[in-house]
Write a structure and sequence with these properties.
The structure is a single chain. It contains ten helices and no strands. The chain has 179 residues and is mainly alpha-helical. It has a domain of 31 residues. The longest helix has 23 residues. The protein is elongated and about 85 Å long. The protein starts with 5 loop residues before the first helix and ends with a helix.
Amino acid sequence: MLDKDPVAFFLGLVKLREQGLDPVETGVIPGNPVTKKVKDATRWASQQVKNAVDAREDWLDGVKNPSRNPIEAALAANEKRIDRLKQSLDAKKWEKNMAKVSPAEIVEVATKLGSGVYSAGVEARTSKIQKRVNELQPLVQDVSNTIQGMSDKTDADREKRLLTARKLMIEVGKKRAGV
């Protein structure tokens, strides 16, 4: 089977492991101490973390000195992004990956990082936040001016104001998105 259809063979091995069976112990794959093995999961994961931590300065240097304009490269790859997004949506990858996460894991990571990571991330984006608020503020002011100019004498008037405010904020979102 391996020579005829390696994908089917692989999927068979995956199915065995999903059932809690080891392909070597079940005799599907012969045990051979000379055969190259993939690193055990603990060693593999710890090496990935160590290598990523050790490469932090290289990462920062790469961000500061990109080999090409990252915005232009991202825009040039837009069709690929759309294709991959469609594939991901069709395969329900987001839903499947969310099923692998627990609230306890989220809390564990946040606790290890500490609240300073959050505030440092926000502070590092101060100029970006200011730029976005500069774009948003006049639009929201126009929404407010429009709503303030509407009658609020009856319940029907107040309801109309609320619904209009919602519709106008949707329009603000569209304006900001360039729609």
